[in-house]
From TrEMBL:
A GO cellular component annotation in the UniProt record: endoplasmic reticulum
Name of the featured protein: peptidylprolyl isomerase
Function: PPIases accelerate the folding of proteins during protein synthesis.
E.C. number: 5.2.1.8
Record's keyword annotation contains Lipid metabolism: no
Catalysis performed (reactions): [protein]-peptidylproline (omega=180) = [protein]-peptidylproline (omega=0)
Keyword entries, A-Z: Calcium, Endoplasmic reticulum, Glycoprotein, Isomerase, Metal-binding, Repeat, Rotamase, Signal
Length: 539
């Protein structure tokens, strides 16, 4: 004769219990005391949905549901006076029938409910939170109040990307995402009237269902955002800052806003080399690389509309904010020439280096960031060249001009006057600016341009006869070489300094051997000034 309630399963966690006025969704089996079943929500494949305590249920069930937790199971015995009484339900429930119900509570909410937010992880740094009209990327697991999973972005291995607060989402999610930080994780519980309401979504979500979203925010930006720059290290000395049209070499780590690494120049052990402000890189990077110093480290945060947009690229998802931590190694402009800074110049500086002079000098060679490439000091010997003969890169030929013995200078050489785009494998990176600290130790004056040998005095009028020692009317290479060597040793003549003796003599002989037969005749033999005069006359 009395209502009987047996709690057969009670969940460990019960944050909320049914009160009169609440709306519930539950499954049930209805049977008579002999076990004969008269009704089942399971057979219909849908829960029974109803307000409690408003007379929409038989009195016994109205009472039996009060105090239940979601996922709780109760066995309820309802006497006739609290069920269908002496009349019963024709064809279904006889008069004065005792009813047994096996009840499982699936869902519970109230018309006064609001969105509930439970944050269970929040990063220490939160420079920015989600505001209305922001665009966000987040992962989520969507469940019903009983824990049944109905959707998950993790299963699709793709974030959910959307604007917030402008009606692209259900109202409860629009509210629940506001104020989140990137990296934050929260549980958002949404009553059905702020979700999919009475009808559900027509697929996976039934009508009147409370929804629980476990959300992890990965990304956040606003369409009005520009790039953001955070200076991490700016050198004390910054003589020059990058401008549009400059060519930069820099290292970088590229991450998403949640810290996920998508690319790194360090892993390739090679800088990224590009022009700035010319559209060779994404718009945000073009802007973020302007105004940097060599050696500077900065963080550049780029919204997707200045990055890879809605489509993304490779490991970069669509609509992703990009974070680049860059380190500028060097930069130059294609219009740059050699830069020379003189640190010491002797007071007695009358003889200046010029094209054709033979120079001996020490140097330290480094990159613009200070990385040492080479040093003659470590080898214990000087570097020796003939200036302007192409024995060094063009920038060094230019940088060694007009030096005194004892002078010290720094020569900065842009790559187009150095080793170019290719560099020297294993030694000099491509497109690298080179810095040489130079000290000139010795200078041997060269010969006038175009001459390999000059006389120190008057030239013998019988020069061919003197060279033709056996007087056979022909001069062989051996005779020619022996004669030139004698003139140099006796001080009567001078060879261009810095070149191999045999190569110079052979070159001189080949110039005289006009028919290429390995012999020079008197008719072929001419001095330099004689050649010039004849050519002039012919012209």
């Amino acid at each position: 004769t009395e209502l009987g309630v047996e709690r057969r399963f009670v969940p460990e966690s019960c944050p909320r219990a049914v009160r009169p006025g609440d709306f519930v969704r539950y499954h049930y089996l209805g049977a008579f005391p002999d076990g004969t079943r008269f009704d089942s929500s399971y057979d219909r494949g849908s829960t029974f949905n109803v307000f409690v305590g408003k007379g929409q249920l038989i009195a016994g069930m109205d009472q039996a549901l009060v105090g239940m937790c979601v996922n709780e199971r109760r066995f309820v015995k309802i006497p006739p006076k609290l069920a269908y009484g002496s009349e019963g339900v024709p064809g279904v429930i006889p008069p004065n029938a005792v009813l047994h119900f096996d009840v499982l509570l699936i869902d519970l909410w109230n018309l006064e409910d609001e969105v509930q937010i439970q944050t269970y992880f929040k990063p220490e740094k939160c420079p920015r939170t989600v505001q209305v009209s922001d665009f966000v990327r987040y992962h989520y697991n969507g469940t019903f109040l009983d824990g049944t999973l109905f959707d998950s972005s993790h299963n699709r291995m793709r974030t959910y990307d959307t604007y917030v607060g402008i009606g692209w989402l259900i109202p409860g999610m629009d509210q629940g995402l506001l104020g989140m930080c990137v990296g934050e994780k929260r549980i958002i519980t949404i009553p059905p009237f702020l979700a999919y309401g009475e009808d559900g979504d027509g697929k996976d979500i039934p009508g009147q269902a409370s929804l629980v979203f476990d959300v992890a925010l990965l990304d956040l930006h606003n369409p009005k955002d520009g790039i953001a720059i955070e200076n991490q290290l700016v050198p004390e000395s910054c003589e020059r800052r990058s401008q549009t049209g400059d060519f930069l070499r820099y290292h970088y780590n590229g991450t998403l806003l949640d810290g996920t690494l998508f690319d790194s120049s360090y892993s390739r052990n090679r800088t990224y080399d590009t022009y700035v402000g010319k559209g060779y890189v994404i718009a945000g990077m073009d802007e973020g690389l302007l105004g940097v110093c060599t050696g500077e480290k900065r963080r550049i945060i780029i919204p997707p509309h200045l990055g890879y947009g809605e489509e993304g690229r490779g490991k970069i998802p669509g609509s992703a904010v990009l974070v680049f931590d860059i380190h500028v190694v060097d930069f130059h402009n294609p219009s740059d020439s050699v830069s020379i800074t003189v640190h010491y110049k002797p007071s007695n500086c009358t003889v200046l280096s010029k094209k054709g002079d033979y120079l001996k000098y020490h140097y330290n060679a480094s990159l613009l960031d200070g990385t040492l490439l080479d040093s003659t000091h470590s080898l214990g010997k000087t570097y020796n060249i003939v200036l302007g003969s192409g024995q060094v890169v063009l920038g060094m030929d230019m940088g060694l001009q007009d030096m005194c013995v004892g002078e010290r200078r720094t020569v900065v050489i842009p790559p187009h006057l150095g080793y170019g785009e290719d560099g020297v494998e294993g030694e000099v990176p491509g497109s690298a600016v080179l810095v040489f600290d130079i000290e000139l130790l010795e200078l041997v004056s060269g010969l006038p341009e175009g001459y390999m040998f000059v006389w120190n005095g008057e030239v013998s009028p019988n020069l061919f006869e003197e060279i033709d020692q056996n007087h056979d009317g022909e001069v062989l290479l051996e005779e020619f070489s022996e004669y030139i060597q004698t003139q140099v040793e006796t001080g009567k003549g001078k060879l261009a300094p810095g070149f191999d003796f045999e190569k110079i003599v052979k070159n001189m002989f080949t110039n005289q051997d006009r028919d290429g037969n390995g012999k020079v005749t008197a008719e072929e033999f001419k001095l330099k000034d004689q050649e010039a005069k004849e050519e002039h006359d012919e012209l």
